[in-house]
Each structure stands twice: as structure tokens, then as C-alpha cells.
Amino acid sequence: MNAPTESSTESAVLDWFERALEQPAGQRDAWLDAQALPEALRLRVQRLLQTESSLGGFLEESASAPEPEGFPAVGEHVGNYQLLARLDAGGMGVVYRARRADGSYEQDVAVKLIRPLHLLAAPEFRRQMLARFEQERVLLGRLQHPNIARILDGGRTASGLPWLAMEFVDGLPLTEHCEREALDLHARLRLFLKVCAGVQEAHRHLVIHRDLKPDNILVTRDGTPKLLDFGIARTLGEDANGDPGATQLTAMTPAYASPEHVRRQPLTTASDVYSLGVLLFQLVTGERPYRLDGLTPAEAERAICDGDPPSLRNALQRAAKDDPASAMRASQLTDDLQQVVAKAMHKDAARRYGTAQSLATDIERWLQGKPVLAHPDSVGYRMRKFVGRHPLGVIAGTLALVAVLAASGMALWQARQARQGAADLREMNHFLLEVTQASDPFDADRELTLSEALDVAATRIDERFAGRPELAAELRFGIGYSMLSRYRLEAADTQLARALAESRTAFGEDDIRTLRVGDAIAYLRQEQDRGQEAEAGFRNVIARLQRNRLTDDPLYGNVLGNLGNLFLVREDYRQADPWLRQAMAWFDVHPDAPANDRANILSNLAHAAHGLEDLPRADALYARAQAAMAIAYPQGSPDQAILLNNRALLAEDRGDRAAALALHRQSLAMR
């Protein structure tokens, strides 16, 4: 093992020193003692804290501490500005309020200088700090945006110390402003959109802020947020080895740092998106998603990288007990907004919003009452060892309309005389055509998606099909299933419950159309984490299909597989295996059944065999499933990518690392 270099040691000292500065002043020593640090490192940081405390007197114009050579004092000039008073000090710099002193015009500015403490540090440490300070000046010079504090001037003092003059922002930190002004949820989100605009501007110039937090976003008296402190920002794609002064220092605010930042991995714009997600969580709930006070670094890293934050609703409900403002925000909250925050704060950077603008766009959609684009993870993604969920019948609006029309037409022709069925079909056609016309930009102020058009259709069923439960049930089932596929669970629950009641009225408890709705509701309960209700629902549908001799219907094969998959998600492989075997047996005697359903059952059965440690059988089943999916999805699919990944894990367990690597690469390429 190589010995640590002076540069790496000094970087570690700075990292821990800046973390300690985040703690309340009276608790820093106790916090530092609680960290699992090497004794030499702990003593170095403790000495810096002691020196920092003594230098605080110097910064207030006390003579109790020695002045670093060449460092300007309050009242002196820096460039064309006179230092008036100290405003704040962070991990790297100290900020003064200053005023233009050359008489050309009156203007208050914020002048930033490197912390005096850092000028007393070891030479390598000082060099890194000076380089990082210079980088901030370069980066700020690129950014001109109403939501970013502008750089106005810069240079070096007579002793050669860098300084920069910025727009003076007379305001409050973002969260404090929202509380003081008692902003409701919609007002907070509209303010947050301006923050996103500033971050997007930085990203447009390939600048990652890396320290987005309320204290670095001040809101002026007119309600304009301003991004501050690009001291640890860096350029996207910058080589960490190319500029030690700019990149080796690992300062951060852990409470707002992304998992990849905490792990010291390469950062992208998605890292800032994560921090925006934490800010959004705090604006909505009044608290941060993770409570890190008193945790060791390892515990904090586990909390951020592996822990699950509370849902917005749970956090707000806790706060609402003692805070009427939180209760008001809780009443405005919906599942869609929770999905937006979850996507922004996803552990996997690739699963977050690609840009700050994408996040802002979804918030704007929510504010306008439109469906958001954020979708939750599938079981196959959230649990690497699990296979993907059974594909939902309606993926996009077009398919939803076709499925509703086809299913309704078939049901009606079977249930009624040809003339009546044709008349009903015409009526449903007219209704669906009216829905599609809602997406015509000539008739609306914009072009609606078909998914949005279906949402509109759901509100019109009662009016259009009053007294016709057989038609309303079929349409509502198709629309409710579409909502389920888009993970709009509350809306899907409403529509499917209505569809079940109408189907029972129109067709009876044991009709295949009623049982199809029952299967969808059981699947909805699974998605709602109501596992016992889901299991009871699947078992009830299976029993009714058997009792009414409807086992040749494709619903029977699918619901057997759905129940098996429910046990698979629970990792109860012994119960999953027999149900999946029954499902596979049904598909074996029904060769005309959909090929994609057959392939997914094979894949699920292979995963159950893997869980039971029957590795040869699992490999044989994976091979069959892979061949079946190649036929069903010649261009690839998410289910196929999950299968390849699961087969790669099996290859790892069998010790075949070369095969595992090849399968992982295939899965990654397909994803």
C-alpha cells in the first residue's frame, strides 16, 4: 500500500475540518471525538478548529490572534472596494460586505477572500485552496443569469491574495424565506422553479455546483432566489487528476450530497439534481429526508446511499400534528408530486431526471394539474435479484384505446344480439373518437397526450353511459388499467373499483370480465404494498375460474403466474415455484397464448429455481426464456434486459465469470 502523500493528507484534513464547521459551534469537539478517525488526523482537525476559534476574534477586529501577512482588515481597501463588515465564513472563504470606494458610483457588493486560517496551513494545502478559489472566479465569470449571484470584479491584493467581488444579495436562505413568508405548497414550488432555472444555466455552461443547500440560495425581498458559493463547483468532465487544486478537495454538505458524491465517485449534473431533490423534499415537508446528526461518517454514508427516506406524506403528517401550515401542504400533496421527488432523489444517477430543466418541467406539469412524467421503479429494478413484473396490458395511450375497443367489442358481441352489439360498439366508437379529438392541437391550446386524453375520458363516463353499466365497466377497466400502468395508483384504484361494481351489476360475480377486473385489482394491491390483500385477490380469481370451468381462458394462465410472482417478490421461492410451474403447464398446453407472457413465466420460473439453489434447472429455464424473448422481442425489451442480468447473476453463482461478464454487457447494452 502506498503511503499517503502530503497532498492527500491535507485534503483529508480540510474535508473533516469543513464537516466539523457544519456542526453547531459548541458541539464541534464532541462531534469530532465521535468520529472514527486516526488519532493524528483528529488532532490536526482539532487544532484547526481551535485556530479557527481564535481567528474569529481577528475577523471581528480583535488583536487576540496574529494577522496573516498581507491579509486585509475591515476598513481597508480591496481593489476599488472598502471592506465594511464581515458577513459570513464557510469552509473555504470569508465574505465581507463592501462598498465601491473610488467615487465613480455607489454600490454595495460582497467581497470574498480566502479564509485567513488556510493561509497559515502547509504549503501544499495552501496551494490547493488558492487554486480552488481561482477556479471559482473563472466559473462565475461564465454565468450570467437572474437566479445566480453575478461576479462583478476580481483580482489580487497587494500581497498577491485572490479576491472576487459579487453582487450583494440582501436576503434569507431558501427554507427560512418560505417559513417566514408562510408560503403554501404551490408558492414554494413556483419559487423552486426559479432555483432550477439557475442550476440549469450553470449546467448549460457545463458547471456542476456540488453544494446546493438552503444557505447557498438566498431569496431577496422581491422573492428572487440567487445561487451563491460556487467554491467547490467544477466543470463537467474535468479530469480529477488534471487540476489538484480544483478537484482533489472533497468538501461537501453531506445532508444534501448525492450518493455518488458521498462515495467520492465521479459527479455529473445528476448529482446537482439529487441535491435539488433534497431541497424539494425539505420545501414540501419542512425537514430533510435523512437525519444525520450524531452519526459517524460510515453511518451517514449508509443512510444516504442505502437508506430509504420517509415518504413526503408521512413526513408531512408528522409535522401537521403541531403545524397548521404543514397540514395545509399535506392537503395539497398528491402521489404524483411524491413520484417527482422520488425520481429526483433516486440512488442511481441514471434513473434521476436528466437535467434540472426536466425536473422543473414535471413540477410545472403538477402545478397545472397535468399527469407528471415521473414513474416509480419496477420490482425488477428495485430488487436486482428479482425478475421484472408481468407486463401490463396497456403501455401507451394508443394501445389503451385499441385494447378497450377490442375487448369491449368482443364482450358485447358475445353477450348481445348482433344488432344491439353493433349499436353499442358504434356508441363506444363515438365516445373514443371524442377522446382522441381532445388531443388535436387545432381544438385545444396545446397538443394533449393520449394518456391525458384517457384521464379526461374517465371523468365523462358517468355522464355518457349513465344506466349502461356493461359499457361503463369495460371502458372504466381499460382506463383504470392504463392508469395502473402509469403508476397513478389512487386514480387507478378509483376507476377499477367502479369497474368491478359495474361489472358485477352487468355481468355477475363469476363472469370472465368481472374476474379480469378482480385480477387487475389484486395486482394494484401488490403495487400498493398490500401483499395479503393481493394474495387473497389472486386466490379468489383462481378459485372462481376453476369453479366455473373457465381455465382455458388466458386469464387463468396469467393469474397463476401473477400469484407466483407475488411470492417471488417476497423471496418465498418454495411457494413461488409450484404456482409458476402450474402457469408454465398451462402455457405448454395452450401454444396459441401470447409469446411474451410465455417468455415471462419461463423467466420467473428460472428465478424461482435459482432462489431454491437448483442451479442447473435455473440455467436451462433461463436459456429457454432467453430464446423465447428473442422471438417475442426481436428489438429487445426491458424484460429481456432484466432476464440477461439475472442469468448473469446465476453465472456468477456457478463460478463462470466470463459468461457472467458477457451477459452483464448484453443487459447493459439493451438497457
Tell me the helix content. 55-70%
Instruction: Indicate the low-confidence ranges by residue numbers.
Output: 1-8, 55-67, 239-250, 377-399, 415-424, 438-446
- Radius of gyration over all CA atoms, rounded: 31 Å
Average predicted confidence as pLDDT: 76
Structural class of the secondary structure composition?
Answer: alpha+beta
* Strand numbers in spatial order across the main sheet: 1-2-3-4-6-5
Count every beta strand, where a strand is a DSSP E run of 2 or more residues. 11
Q: Main beta sheet, described?
A: 6 strands, antiparallel
β-sheet strand percentage: 5-15%
* SS field, number of helical segments: 29
Spatial shape: elongated
Whole-Å distance between the termini?
A: 38 Å
Model description:
The protein is α+β, with helices and mostly antiparallel strands and 671 residues long. It has 29 helices and eleven strands. The chain has helices at 6-21, 28-33, 39-59, 116-119, 123-142, 174-180, 185-204, 244-247, 259-262, 269-285, 297-306, 312-320, 324-332, 335-344, 356-367, 379-382, 397-415, 418-437, 450-464, 469-485, 489-507, 512-527, 531-547, 554-569, 573-588, 595-611, 615-632, 638-653, 657-670; strands at 77-78, 81-89, 93-100, 108-114, 151-156, 162-167, 171-173, 207-208, 217-220, 225-227, 234-235. A six-stranded antiparallel sheet has the order 1-2-3-4-6-5.
